[in-house]
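Support reply, case 0932

Customer input (verbatim):
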Amino acid sequence: MNVHTNIEKAVKVNEAFIYLKKNSLPFETIPLSNLFGAVEDIGDTSLYKSGIPNELIAQIDMSKEVPETTYTNDDSLVYYSPFESDTKEHVLKIVKLFNQLSSIELIIYTSQNIYEYVNEFSNSNISFCCYTNPNKLTIKSNKIITHGYSARSFIKQKMPIIIIGPYGLGGWVTPSNINYLLKDNFKGRPSGDYNEFISLEIIVDEFLEIKEEENLNDILSKNALLVTNYINNFSTTDIDNFVRKQNKLYSDFMDTNKRGFLAPKLASNLEIIKEKEATIIRRKEINDVLFSLPESDLGFLEDLKNNYTCQKLKEKYEMTDNEFWEIIIPLWERKAIVFSL
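Our regenerated output:
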C-alpha cells in the first residue's frame, strides 16, 4: 500500500492507493478505479465535489506543515508560496502585481522550480528564498501574503495575513471577516472567479489598514483564537487507522475467499431519481449519471442500503458468483458503492 502526494506518482503504481491532496485547485481528476482512500485538508471540499464518497475521505489539519514566524516592527513584506500547492502561474501573477509597486520590497518564499520560472520576470524590488522543507524555515516579517491551509498556521502564530489566492483578493484577515474566509479555506475572495483581476489600489489600502490599526495585537490574538477553535471543531482523524481500515477493506475485496463477508452500500454522495421507466443513479455534487436501472432491478438497489453482506445478497437474488460480481465490481470501480466489514 502506498500513500501518494500527487496523481502523477499514483497512476504509475499498479496497486490501489490512498491519495493525499495538498493542491488547492479543484479540477484534478483522480482515477477512481484504483483509489481506496483520500486525505485532504480540513478546509477543502474539492475531493467530495470530484465524485469521491465521504466514506473514503479523511481530513487532517495540513497547516502544521508551514514555517515558524517572528513578527517584526519594520515594514517588511513576505509572500509565502504554500508548499506543494502553489503554481508557477499564481506566483508569476504575484510578481507582476508587485512589479508595479516598486516602492514595496517583497520577499517570495517558493520552490526552486517556481523560482527558475518567474525570476526573469521580476523587478529589483522582489527577491526570492527557495525552500524544500517548510518545517525548517523561519520567516521574520511585518506581514505575510499567502493562501490556503498555510494561512491558518500563520494566523495561529499571530501574524498579520493578507490573502491573495487562486480566486483573487481575500484581503487583510480580521475577526470580522475570518469566518467568511475560512469557509473557502482562504483561497481568495469567496465566490470569486479563478484567476480574477486584483486591483493594485485595493492591495495598497489593505497594507495601510494594517499599518494604521491601533488595536493590532488584539486583532491578531482574536484571529488566532478563532482559527484554533475552528480547527478544534473538527474531530481529529487518526490517519494511520484510516489507512489501515481502507487497506484491509481493499485487501478483503480482492481476496475471493473474504469478499463475500463484506457489506456493500450505496455511497453517501449518490442520489436516486425515479422516472417512469427507469431509475437513474447520479452523484449529487457533480450531477453525472453513473447508470440507470429498470424498475425490475430496483429491489437489488434498495437492498444495498440494508447492510446485507455480499454473500447474503447473492443468495437472496439466486445469482452465481460470476453474475453477482459482474454487477458489484463495476459499481465499486466507479465508487458508486463502498464496503464495510
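We compared this against your earlier run and they match. Two observations from our side: The mean pLDDT is 87. The CA atoms of residues 5 and 107 lie 27 Å apart. Please reopen the case if you see a mismatch on your end.
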